[in-house]
Amino acid sequence: MTCKPSAIPAPEAVNIPALRERYRQERTLRTRPEGQRQYMPPADHFAHDTYDRDPHMAVVARDAVSEDIDVAVLGGGWSGVLAGYHLRKMGVTSFRNIDHAGDFGGVWYWNRYPGLSCDNDAYCYLPLLEEMGFLPSKKFTDGFEIREYMQSIARKFDLYQGALFHTLVTSMRWDEQIQRWRITTDRDDEIRARFVVMANGLLNVPKLPGIPGIHEFKGKMFHTARWDYDYTGGDQKNPVLDKLADKRVAIVGTGATSVQAVPFLGQYAKQLYVLQRTASTVDERRNEKTDPEWAKSLQPGWQRERQMNFHHAAMETLSPGEPDLICDIWTEINRNLSAEFDVDGWPTSAEEYMAKREVMDYRLMERLRGRVDALVQDKEAAEILKPYYRYLCKRPASNDDYYPTFNRPNVKVIDVSKTQGVEQMTAKGFIADGVEYEIDCIIFASGFEVTSDLDRRWGFDVLEGRDGKSIYEHWATEFRTFHGMMTHGFPNQFFTGFIQGGVNASTTETFSQQGRHIAYIIKQALDRGAAVVEPSLEAQNAYVDHIRATAIDISAFQRECTPSYFNNEGEEVVTEKGEKKLRSYLGETYGPGFYVFEKLLEDWRAQGDLEGLVLTKDRVPS
Question: pTM for the whole thing?
Answer without folding.
Answer: 0.94
